[in-house]
Amino acid sequence: MATKTKVAAKRAPLETLREADETLRLPAITPPVTYPLETLVPEVRHQTPAVGQRATRPDGRLHGLGQTRYIDDLAFPGMLYAKIKRAGVASARIRSIDTREAEAMPGVMAVLTGREIPVNSFGPSLKDQPVLADDRVFHAGDGVAAVAAVTEQIALEALDRIKVEYEPLPAVFDPLEAMKDDAPKVHAPNGNIYATKVIRKGDIDKGFAASDHIFEGRFRTQMVEHAPLEPHATIAMWDPNGRVTIHSTLGRITLGRADVARTLKLPINRIRIVATIVGGNFGGKNEITQEPVLALLSKKTGRPVKGTFTRTEEFIATTTRHPIIMDYKTGVSKDGRILARKVRLVLDGGAYCSWSETTLGKACILSAGPYKIDNLHTEAYVVYTNKTMTGAMRGFGAPQVCFAYESHMDDIAAALNLDPLDIRLLNAFEEGSPSPTGQVLHSVVVKDSLLQAAQRFGWKEPRS
Amino acid sequence: MANVTLNVNGEARTASVPPETTLLKLLRDNFNLTGAKLGCDVGDCGACTVIVDGKPVNACLMLAGQADGRDVLTIEGLATLDGLHPIQKAFEDNASLQCGFCGPGIILSAKALLDENPAPTAQQIRDALAGNLCRCTGYTKIIEAVQDAARALRGEPADKAA
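Above: the input entities. Below: the structure tokens describing the complete assembly.
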């Protein structure tokens, strides 16, 4: 095939050449694109005042011209397309995987299963996530096998021809259920609670005893997908020297490099990760997904392999925001001063840890709100369930607890017939207030911000 | 394989593609015009918007064969060697694009609007861009940029009040 292409390249007109491209999947010949030659490079040694200047983005022009190359916009000669077969069952043991029919298909260059991955586990803190399912499926979005083929269509068809036999196992989907002793263990023999954080300050029993009113409330949030407009995409190239070059939409390159090195059992200096502009991350592209799979498919085929997630995969096979069940109990004096607060957070961690420990910590520390509370007890748990894993997303748990403590404040204000603004001004942090963990806070402007905001949008004006 | 001949950015192009090929795949894989992006592949996000015979369409929902014999304008066909298109200029000046993935689609939706209605209201701009999602949530600056571009295209001086 290679000789044929060379001959064709010599004489064939452009369109025939493109057909030759089709067989080798060479990047197509680009028509001349005209765009302005002036660039946005700032003048050298030209000092501009940082404040008061209108800033434009240095990459804004390329974005607007459509010339920014995201990973999915790249192509390499001979590139193959990879697709991953998703389990579709939440909890099961894999009895057998039959890939023979898929491998026999014309155009299918390689098939990969979890057993072929040198070290089949990764994760930013706990290494509990397999790259492809080994013999157990922990959630429906788990990959069970991967295919590299000359076109995406052939790869998709090959997925259908992979026969996987499952033995269904009991699953647990509710985090509160998962905390019970008799709940099915997601990662047996370990329990489902995989991280805990407790903050104690003062004496909450005394605080509640001294309170005039005690309010309780439960707040829940839902799972949220980052849904960046650009889906996860990767191109892996395993060269004959045993070095791997990975173009990826990763946001945390060095962490990804360590995880790829671990899973491929290679020294880290043999892994090169090239990351370009990311088309939206929001925390969802902080860890590897398909990178080791594509690297191994590239090793098997000797060709670059590209994989781009479908929108469905974005939802089922990448991290999401933790749903949290938040129980608040607050003791207040007659005039609305908070005397004691007890908080219990249960984070739904999904099937794998991912960034749960970080999220747990931040949610726990911030769960009391920006309020002076002398007697505080916060306990937070993150538990495994047989669902899509939850991980980093803008705020790391802060938005969930903010929804809860502010809703709780509104409930208290309404019950005490207080203005929601006044109860916040009464309790808000001041200069030098200690945080729940004892950090002394400086430059505290909560009250100023509240008052200014209230004035700007006319909070005190009569409402209809 | 289906043979398609279409006019892309003012140039006649032909390709032979499998019949299930979408216009988006044709533009990206065969013509290497990667400005139109694949975001959702089901017509929800608008990242693949191109202009076909003057109308904005989701290129992921149109088959290559359906574009046969038609005029297609992609983001690559907007600027000239002399300079940026006024819409692109306005988007740059307003720093309207953050990650930029939605940008080409939004600029083309805006162009289709301004071609039909040179003086749209903010609401009309919002309606025209309803099919284009920006997950970085920069809609305010995007709408301001379209307003600036409309002024520039009408030959009015830019609004320097802001």
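Note for the figure: Chain A touches chain B through 48 residues (CB under 8 Å).
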